[in-house]
Amino acid sequence: MLGADDREHVNSYLIYQLIHSDHHAEIKKQFLECNNDIKSGEYKFLRVDRQIFYAEATSMEIQVEHQKMILTVFQDITYRKKEEELIREMAYFCSLTKLPNRRYFEEKLIQAIAESVQFSLMFIDLDGFKRVNDTLGHDAGDEVLKIVAIRLSNSIREGDIVSRVSGDEFIIFLPKADQEAAIRVAQRINTALTTPMIVKGETMKLSASIGISTYPKDGKTPDELIKKADKAMYFAKHNGKNNYQLYSPEFES
Fold this sequence. Notes:
Blueprint: E1 2-3, H1 14-18, H2 24-33, E2 39-46, E3 52-64, E4 67-76, H3 78-92, H4 102-114, E5 119-127, H5 129-136, H6 138-155, E6 161-166, E7 169-175, H7 179-194, E8 197-199, E9 202-204, E10 207-215, H8 222-237, E11 244-246
Parallel strand pairs: 10-11
Antiparallel strand pairs: 1-4, 2-3, 3-4, 5-7, 5-10, 6-7, 8-9
Helix pairs in contact: 5-6, 6-7
């Protein structure tokens, strides 16, 4: 228990030393606000071995003889938090590559459009991936996709998001990126993907066809922007592959 008069100095108590630093301000706020009300919150704690666990802290002000005290009860909710995280991963992430999926990606686009933030996106299709599956099998294809996911993630800027949408197709969200910035990322991706990789003892070299669309010039909705980046990607694929193309209204003819 914590003396009510001491809640401003909660940092001197053991609880403040055990709770993760991410939540110091939150737990102090909870103690300060539980005057005649019950306050609760979920926090990260550190065990003696420095492993993180989650607990729900419920605080209330009580009278002990002539002194007001803050009583806080803790309940371990680590198992529940792990279940929530697993459900989130299943809903928003690709189980093979661990990249965000299309649902996660589209929610980010909706948010950026609502904030009227300029951005670009890329639609990427691997060149010759079907040949990998046909000659080496689907296990090899899965290994290639994992390697590609890593190379794409290493080629983007901080804050960009790589998403696997299906098969060998990926989309990249480039917040606050104009066409020139998107082109620089596309060039890095092409260089990264053409670097030979070894899968199941076989050396192979892939490439990618990349289509780029930009908000708000090329569209005002996630669906419209993705479709236009997809069209630009097909134009790149039909013009030699291993290149990028910016969307143009000419692709509609």
